[in-house]
Design a protein that fits this description.
Blueprint: H1 3-15, E1 22-23, E2 36-41, E3 51-56, E4 62-66, E5 69-73, E6 78-80, E7 94-99, E8 105-109, E9 112-116, E10 121-123, E11 131-137, E12 143-148, E13 154-159, E14 162-166, E15 176-181, E16 187-191, E17 194-199, E18 204-206, E19 215-218, E20 224-228, E21 232-237, E22 240-243, E23 252-257, E24 263-267, E25 272-276, E26 279-283, E27 294-299, E28 305-309, E29 312-317, E30 321-324, E31 335-340, E32 346-350, E33 353-358, E34 361-365, E35 379-381, E36 387-391, E37 394-399, E38 402-405, E39 414-419, E40 424-429, E41 432-437, E42 440-446, E43 456-462, E44 467-472, E45 477-481, E46 484-489, E47 500-505, E48 511-515, E49 519-524, E50 527-531, E51 542-547, E52 553-557, E53 560-564, H2 566-574, E54 583-585, E55 605-607, E56 613-616, E57 621-624, E58 638-645, E59 648-650, E60 656-658, E61 664-671, E62 681-687, E63 694-697, E64 701-705, E65 711-719, E66 725-736, H3 744-808, H4 813-842, H5 851-863, E67 874-880, H6 888-908, E68 913-920, E69 924-931, H7 938-943, H8 951-961, E70 965-971, E71 975-983, H9 984-987, ...
Parallel strand pairs: 1-29, 60-66, 67-68
Antiparallel strand pairs: 2-29, 3-4, 4-5, 5-6, 7-8, 8-9, 9-10, 11-12, 12-13, 13-14, 15-16, 16-17, 17-18, 19-20, 20-21, 21-22, 23-24, 24-25, 25-26, 27-28, 28-29, 30-57, 31-32, 32-33, 33-34, 35-36, 36-37, 37-38, 39-40, 40-41, 41-42, 43-44, 44-45, 45-46, 47-48, 48-49, 49-50, 51-52, 52-53, 53-54, ...
Helix pairs in contact: 3-4, 3-8, 5-6, 6-8
Length: about 1000
């Protein structure tokens, strides 16, 4: 860098170091000290490094160019700005910023120039490696850039993206340092070579001292004002420069002409000099400024004035309330009382004298002007216009330019004074109520005579009734007239509790009593109603009340200054339960609050002839004009800045889709009200999750947990410090992707599977019912078969035999008796067969016995039963293969079939030999029953059994039931063979859950 560039950069660096904000829409009648001031300092860690430049884009953001990069500021959060991936700023030293009217941000650095459109960073290649010192957009839309370069500085005009540069011939020297367009459209250029009028017309150079021209602005008289910190302020008069009159030595750097016409001068050693209406005041580090070296001054769209200093960033803004203090000419900040005179002046009593304020000018009165003491207590103006002032050493009134002491009045502390229309003056003193008339003490009435041990803290004259209202420390209000106490009101009558701090009679004759703890009570015609926080007041500690010219009520409370419109007050008077709408100004609005009463003297608040309200705070006096309140009418721009899912940030874009299984979703938003960002109200809701708006104050982040997958729409709106809402706000539409188990197809699949399962269970149940019904039917058939084959046939034969005996009784009695004996024998046999059948129905297989044991026992039993012939056949059982266990229920079924076959052979075959064979084969179980009896008729065998008999068909049905097969072979005279086969899987595997396990379930269900 050449020497000129190094020298300029060095001057820049010595001016900068951090940032800090301060004021807004500014009244030029006020000094800087009367504006609200806030500061963000380097020491507090808000920034590091120096702030070189400030700009505000149409979206409301404040952009701060520093030596360590570009920052975006919303009044609360300062965020380092990074360009999109793959795009880069030309260096980290930001020196010139310009918010163009098309919304683009021009960024000039020590190493080049770029523009940011909100979506893309566009480099200006013509400026690569060059120091951009200044940027300006003229009224025609052309963007001008001043360049510091070696060997020659340049001035460049950019139109439609094309740059046209001047100065390659060295006419500007080493660089252009400042640019300014005045109200006439003249473009002025401050260069190393001097001052240039560049347009309109041909360029013209004006000779200036050989130093940098730091800034250019218009002076009060319309002439050009030139800032050169090594020379001072100069004004262009014709062809020459003349000194601009500023008290004291001035080393200016940057200039600002605010929208109300005041001139702000940022210096390199004295902070800020403020020139307005011919007055000059200063604000420096000793007053709270973050630093005395001012690098940049800027006014935002809301009228706040910002100053970038060597120690931070400061903001100045106008308040609804003007504070007057010692700096504005008060005798002392320890104010006690205030009274408004009929001539428009306001008198302020303080601990070091009495100040008269009139037309912005102050006059201080002390002992030298006739006051008994410099410490003022209470004030009063009588009907004759005389100002009365009490001090610890006596009472005096103002006449002919000085104060005249009142004789006969000793020392004491006078808390309040009031006068009636009869000319009586009443003073509340510590021990008694003083009565004066025509300047003489008439009487002193002890408080004990009025029923109180303490003094009245405040008094108010009822001028119509020539009476006096007294409000007492400790509570209670009394009415005094004609030396008599006519009425008293306490908390037992409904009066608010606590010290009575203020009494005020309104235009309707109602008395308002402000108390320090119980709210404010209204007393009219003996009826008392009390307004408290339950009715909408911000708190119940009230120091005073006053009615303005529009009949609205103002209350000075422990938590702020409150205004209640007359309509709201009337609504409450009509209905004491009504909740009033109030406007509250607190410390952030400049209201000076005290925990207790501002003073023990009065009046504490007055209304001047212009309708302004003046009130003492114990730290100066504050003034508010109810008809000209400073209001911010600009709705704040609202922006959604960031969205993060599970701490991972995502680029904002319409219809964005977030991944599945988001546990924590965080959304950052903001609103751009730089007047008082701490008072911004936000309302937000997440459509798809919330139905109602959620309102917060100055909270700029919201989190949601475990949101289900669906489409969402996040909306946020905001209001500024005066309640002006941006109802449009900002919106972000996004969706959360479902996990596979949250998808529609997965849900449909689950529903289908569930329905299929239900259908399967339904079908299974139908199958079970059908099987159970079939089993029941089979069992009934078997029972019918057993009964038919035993009892029914036996009894039928007995009946036939008995009928035959009956027929032979007359002819052949002995034959009839024989027939009866045979019938009895048949019936007994039938009973035995029935008993045997029933036993077979109820029989269960022997526990622990296998099939071989069971059939051996069955053969022996049948051979010796009553059903066996006299010479029973021989019975033999053989076993082939390795004996294996059968499933118990299956074994029972096989046993029943085999036993029935054996039984038939023993009863009907007339055989001499019966054999049973059990073969345990690998592929099947085979049970073979054969005899050498008379055989079965082929027709019966072919028909599957004798008509009316169910033995053969029942056994086959039983075999089919468990997957077995029963086959018969027989010839007349050659015997009968029956073979039962059962697959191995059913015979041997059933006990392990095989194909016959349903029999176990059936048996269990039974």
């Amino acid at each position: 860098m050449d020497s000129a560039r190094k020298r300029h950069a060095a001057s820049v660096l010595c001016l900068l170091a951090a940032m800090c904000p301060y004021a807004s829409a500014l009244n030029p009648d006020l000094d800087i000290s009367q504006y609200a001031h806030a500061a963000w300092t380097v020491r507090e860690g808000f920034f590091k490094g120096a702030i070189y430049t400030i700009a505000q884009t149409p979206d409301g953001y404040l952009w701060l160019g520093t030596e360590f990069g570009l920052f975006r500021f919303d009044g609360v959060r300062s965020v380092p700005w990074e360009p999109p991936a793959g795009q880069h700023l030309p260096g980290t030293d930001m020196y010139a910023l310009l918010a163009a009217r098309d919304g683009a941000l021009w960024i000039g650095t020590f190493a080049g120039l770029v523009t940011w459109s909100g979506a893309r960073l566009t480099p200006r290649r013509d400026f690569d490696g060059q120091f951009v010192t200044s940027l300006l957009q003229d009224n025609e839309g052309t963007v001008w850039a001043g360049i510091l370069a070696s060997p020659a500085g340049r001035l460049c005009a950019m139109r439609s993206g094309i740059a046209q540069c001047y100065g390659e011939d060295g006419i500007f020297g080493r660089g252009v340092f400042s640019l300014y367009e005045d109200n006439s459209g003249t473009l002025w250029v401050g260069a190393q070579s001097g001052l240039w009028r560049w347009k309109p017309g041909p360029p013209k150079r004006y000779v200036t001292p050989p130093t940098e021209i730091n800034d250019l602005k218009t002076a009060d008289d319309g002439r050009l004002l030139i800032s050169m910190h090594e020379v001072g302020l100069r004004q262009l008069a014709g062809e020459n420069l003349k000194e601009y009159p500023i008290p004291g030595a001035v080393h200016p750097n940057k200039l600002l002409r605010d929208r109300d016409g005041a001139l702000w001068i940022g210096t390199v050693d004295r902070g800020i000099i403020h020139v307005h209406h011919g007055r000059t005041d200063t604000f420096s580090r000793s007053d709270g400024l973050s630093g005395d070296v001012i690098f940049r001054l800027f006014e935002d769209r809301e009228g706040n004035v910002w100053a970038a200093t060597s120690g931070g960033l400061d903001r100045f803004r106008e308040l609804p309330f003007t504070t007057i203090s010692e700096k504005e000419g008060l005798s002392s900040n320890a104010t006690q009382s205030v009274v408004a005179a009929t001539d428009g002046s306001v008198w302020i009593g303080a601990q070091r004298g009495l100040t008269r304020w009139k037309n912005g000018q102050t006059t201080v009165f002390r002992k030298a002007t006739g006051l008994p003491d410099d410490m003022l207590q209470s004030l009063y103006q009588d009907d004759g216009g005389r100002i009365w002032a009490s001090t610890p050493h006596g009472l005096a009134y103002f006449q002919n330019g000085r104060f005249v002491p009142v004789t006969g009045v000793g020392s004491g502390e006078v808390h309040f004074m009031a006068g009636d229309k009869a000319g009586n003056l009443w003073l509340s003193e510590d021990h008694s109520l003083w009565h004066l008339r025509e300047g003489r003490l008439v009487e002193q009435i002890p408080w004990s005579e009025l029923g109180h041990h303490g003094n009245a803290s405040v008094i108010a004259a009822d001028r119509e009734q020539v009476g006096l209202w007294l409000g007492f420390w400790g509570g209670g209000v009394s009415y005094f007239k004609d030396r008599q106490l006519r009425a008293s009101y306490t908390a037992s009558n409904g009066l608010a509790e606590g010290n009575v701090a203020g009494l005020q009679l309104d235009g309707e004759g109602a008395l308002w009593a402000a108390t320090e703890g119980g709210g404010v009570s209204r007393l009219k015609d003996g009826h008392i109603a009390t307004l408290t926080s339950r009715n909408g007041l911000p708190c119940d500690k009230i120091h005073w009340t006053i009615e303005d010219d529009d009949s609205s009520f103002w209350l000075y409370t422990a938590c702020g200054l409150v205004r209640i419109m007359r309509t709201e007050l009337d609504a409450w008077i009509a209905d004491p339960k009504h909740r009033v709408e109030v406007t509250v100004w607190d410390a952030s609005d400049g209201v000076r609050l005290r925990s207790g009463a501002a003073t023990g003297h009065g009046p504490r608040v007055v209304k001047s002839t212009g309708g302004k309200l003046w009130y003492v705070t114990g730290d100066g006096v504050q003034v508010v004009d109810p008809r000209h309140l400073v209001l911010n009418k600009l709705p704040p721009p609202v922006h959604i800045e960031r969205i993060a899912a599970d701490d991972r940030p995502y680029d904002l874009r319409p219809g964005m889709r977030l991944p599945a299984n988001v546990r924590n979703l965080r959304i950052d938003y903001t609103a751009l009200c730089l007047v008082a960002p701490e008072k911004i109200h936000f309302k937000y809701k997440l459509e798809g999750q919330n139905r109602n708006w959620h309102e917060v104050i100055n909270e700029r982040q919201v989190s949601y947990t475990n949101l289900p997958p669906r489409n969402y729409r996040f909306r946020v709106i905001a209001s500024n410090n005066n309640g002006v809402w941006n109802e449009t706000g900002d919106t972000l539409e996004f969706s959360i992707a479902p996990a596979y188990y949250q998808t529609t197809w997965f849900g449909a699949l689950c529903v289908a599977a569930f329905l299929a399962g239900i259908w399967g269970l339904y079908r299974l149940r139908l199958y079970q019912i059908a099987r159970e019904f079939a089993a029941q039917t089979e069992e009934r058939t078997r029972i019918a078969r057993e009964l038919h084959d035993t009892l029914l046939q036996g009894f039928q034969a007995s009946l036939i035999q008995m009928q035959a005996a009956r027929n032979m009784f007359d002819r052949r009695p002995e034959k009839a008796v024989q027939s009866l004996d045979d019938a009895i024998t048949m019936a007994a046999g039938s009973v035995a067969e029935g008993r045997s059948a029933i036993q077979d129905l109820r029989a269960q297989p022997a526990g622990g016995a296998d099939l071989v044991q069971l059939l051996t026992a069955a053969g022996q039993e049948l051979a010796h039963s009553d059903e066996a012939p006299e010479n029973p056949p021989a019975f033999r059982l053989t076993v082939e293969g390795e004996r294996r266990d059968l499933e118990p229920l299956l074994q029972d079924e096989v046993y029943r079939i085999a036993r029935e076959l054996l039984r038939n052979s023993f009863r009907h075959a007339q055989a001499s030999r019966i054999e049973a064979e059990i073969r345990y084969e690998s592929r099947q179980l085979r049970v073979h029953i054969r005899d050498d009896g008379k055989g079965i008729d082929p027709e019966i065998l072919k028909a599957g059994g004798r008509a009316g008999h169910w033995g053969m068909s029942g056994m086959r049905e039983r075999a089919d039931r468990f997957g077995g097969k029963l086959e018969f072979w027989s010839e007349a005279g050659a015997g009968t063979e029956a073979v039962l086969t059962l697959p191995a899987a059913a015979a041997y595997g059933a006990s392990n859950g095989g194909s016959f396990s349903f029999l176990r379930r059936k048996n269990t269900d039974s």
